[in-house]
Amino acid sequence: MVTFTVYQFLSISFQCLIWRLEFAGPASALRSSTICRWEIINKDILLTTPRIKTKYVVILVILVLICIGLGTAHLMGAFSKKVGHLLSPPNPVTPIKPSASQLHIFNKAAVCADGIPCAKIGKDIFEKNGSVVDAAIATLFCNGIVNMHSMGLGGGFFMTIYIRNEKKAYTLNAREFAPINTTASLYNNDPKTSKKGPLAVGVPGELKGYWAAYKRFGKLPWKDLIQPSIDLCEQGYKITLSQYDSLVTDEENIKKDTHLKTWFTEDDDKFKPTGSVVKPTKLCETLKVIANEGGDALYNGSLAKIFVQDIQDMGGIITEEDMKNYTVEWLDPVQTQFRNGDHFYSMPMPGGGLLLAMILNTLDGYNFTSESLYPENIVQTYHRAIEAYKYAYARRSDMGDMNFLDNVDEIVSNMSSHQLADHVRSLINETKTSNDPKTYGGVFVTKNDHGTAHVSILAENGDAVSATSTINL
């Protein structure tokens, strides 16, 4: 006896049905109530056509079509194990639209900021013959208005400055400090107070950092760097989608603040929609004082006492002594050299420049070219880059504030070395990856950071500034 698979059975049945329809015609085929059957004679298939009822023909046709549909679905992977639900967010089901940002080519200089009016302010400073640091400070003052949900006078920043004619880079740490009265048990009763509310506020370094950078590399009068932002503040700026989303996310706390509620809500107590004009009047007044008194206004000038009193009235612990004692740090940059001779400079700890140096050194060894992004190579290229990031960020647990680490020199020399990069490349598996941090040497996992703003500025003479600012929200 010869046996047939389901697919052979369906194939024979369907071919016989087509044969009857082709040679007898649809109506004739149904009237004759005939279909094919097979018999095995000497292992050959002999087709005969006995008559049966019409309803059996219809049933068989339906069954054949169903089986064909199921077979097609199976071949297309409809019954394969689903993994999409494990992804968060899931893979897009429709192609992602291109970025709305326009590609620009600059002939002389460039100012890149995440606040549209701020890029123009930086450009105008260049046109007044300002230095790259002048342009950076002016741009950041503006960003502190239109992106006040991410950065501003109450926060701090990291800045890397490159002076081309010196062939030298400088880095500035102007991040917040913990108040003097902070204790290890301060947040034990309510850990949430370390993230929201007056006890979460650090001693701000933003303005002091601007002032330090200006005194070392500034050219134009200090007031000229702030006046464009004062004008924008008084004329008003438009709420962006990013800012609107941040308001909705923290609605309760925003509406508790008298000034923020006045600026961002309408008469019906709802937030103003995206595109609405906001005039943060109190901030405008503060900027005018800073323009006239200089960058120390918030630390030992007329604003210091007012600021401290506001914080303490809300339950904070910042004192006038905290403000007076705050200092920025000028640090030696992280640096490395790539195979093509290019030099890399970035922020040392507590910034993440070491991680970026480790990543770029690792990828530099692959000798990527434009062909690395060809369709046949792009998956491997992305895989290598992602794995390099994973191995680097696993080392994040070794990092911290250099003022409180014992083995700083060892960490810096190791993570920025080409020997470590070579070792990482040897560990990268070209055919698999892992979601377990321990695979990459990670000791703990940190949550994604949110709420930063960044500016990148390149002057006509080759000087450059890269600055990342945050209020840690």
TrEMBL record:
GO terms for biological process: glutathione catabolic process. Pfam families: G_glu_transpept. Keywords: Membrane, Transmembrane, Transmembrane helix. GO terms for cellular component: plasma membrane. This is Gamma-glutamyltranspeptidase 1. PANTHER family: GAMMA GLUTAMYL TRANSPEPTIDASE (PTHR11686), RE13973P (PTHR11686:SF9). The active site is at 452 (nucleophile). InterPro entries: GGT_lsub (IPR043138), GGT_peptidase (IPR000101), Ntn_hydrolases_N (IPR029055). GO terms for molecular function: glutathione hydrolase activity. L-glutamate binds at residues 175, 470-472. The keyword Transmembrane applies. The chain crosses the membrane at residues 56-79.
